[in-house]
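Hi V.,

You were right to ask for the full record rather than a summary. Here it is.
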Amino acid sequence: MADDSRSVVLARIRAALGSAPAVPEVPRDYRPADPARRGDLDLLVDRLEDYKATVVPTTEATLEADLARALDGLAPLIVPPGLPFAVPGSTVDDGTRTAAELDAFAAVVTCCAAAVAETGTIALDGSAGQGRRAVTLVPDRHFCVVRADQVVQTVPDLLARLTPTRPLTLISGPSATSDIELNRVEGVHGPRTLVVLLIR
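Predicted structure:
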């Protein structure tokens, strides 16, 4: 019965559209970034902290030392292949571990593809240093390195930097949800803790 109903609905849609349905033009007049505006890094920090993420200011020269301090002896650690800095004692993900095996790691350390200040969102695209989606969603803590030149003002600016055919993950703070009584629960859909190391 369900299969028959589905066939009927799809047949009606095909009949209504005809053989060459017209695709409407999608307006792309998004608000552009304001070149005169300053303080995008401060806005990103404000948004991330509002989402209950921890932001650690760092530099290229002090990144490894600041990361070691932020990790504070956490173990075991997993990192994606192609990470451009050292994480002593970490295991490089080979892509074969199951979710249960990834859950045994205390934290993951990654880079990002880009970040948007206005929404406090960090984008991962699965490329070198970012890894597959499972390795960034299963461990309880995510340490993500963001460079100042990766931070853009608006969501359209962010989307312009990303390749839509890549496996995109957009992160706005630690994973959290609320039930009907507005009780916040963290760690449901991803890491319970997000630490962003912001290279200025």
